[in-house]
Amino acid sequence: MTATALPPERAAAPPAPDRAPLPKGVGRYKRPGRRVAFANQKGGVGKTTTTVLIAAAAASRGARVLVIDLDPQCHATSTLRATPGRYTVAEILTPDPQTGDAVPGCAHSAIVPADAQVWPAGIDVIPCSLLAAERETDAGVDREIRLATACEGVADLYDLILLDLPPSLGVLSINGLTYADEVDVVIQPHRFGVDGAAKLSHTIARIRKRLNPGLVMGAIIAAAVDMGDDRAKRAIARERLAEAETAYGEHMPVLVMRRWEAVNKATDRALPLSHFGAIGREPAEWFDSQALRLLGEAA
């Protein structure tokens, strides 16, 4: 299922909505409303897969989860089979023509459910659309904080908010990092580059200094790591993983996601790991551990 662009030629900002009541289940964990961004300026490293499968694991534990899709390719939106309504990321990041500012709290109007017939109940999505690419060329003094403004009050409704960032370091990614509490970097060891790490580190340092001093570096998630029987491949993987630990200017734990067949199938078919029986159990346990890491212990 592919997310569709909205009919208008240009996005228009939604109005500020009435506040929704607090859903049941929110507040079961010690860090409710935690906002975690998954980043890398390279595409195809597993950011969307990581985002969606952690969301599914958290929802399976009874958590209320929101996925914010900031990538104009709309992969998280389509994987979760969410049907965009009138508003998407493009609209909530569009400034009000009267004030020139983002509309506080307007993101509530863009929230839609994931397909609960396929995915665990409790996952909502702020979908993306192709029009979001227009936001990369926005001007204005507040363009980097529009997501935070639009999402006022949203964190009160969820146990966990996951942001799938685009494979670039433009306005959309900066908005996501400005709104996030934590950034986890997703890499594939054989595609990892120190030059790219330096650029991302510089961007994060600038955001910490100017926009979001509370942003913390969480973990490096090394996706699709081949630790099979080939000794040479294992040695290369270990070397790259050791390099990754310090490449971002500070020590970050490296969490190894192995190359699992079920994860590849889940990605290709836009399905949760529970659909793949026995071969899905080991990766499901890994994603469950990541959900617990981000949720914190039950309160």
From TrEMBL:
A Pfam cross-reference name: AAA_31
**Start and end residues of each stretch annotated as Disordered:** 1-29
Domain (AAA) ranges: 34-215
Per UniProt, the ranges with Low complexity bias are: 1-13
Gene3D superfamilies noted in UniProt: P-loop containing nucleotide triphosphate hydrolases
InterPro entries recorded: AAA_dom, DNA_Partitioning_ATPase, P-loop_NTPase
Cited PANTHER family: P-LOOP CONTAINING NUCLEOSIDE TRIPHOSPHATE HYDROLASE, PARA FAMILY PROTEIN CT_582
The protein here is known as AAA domain-containing protein
Q: What is the lineage of its organism?
A: Bacteria, Bacillati, Actinomycetota, Actinomycetes, Streptosporangiales
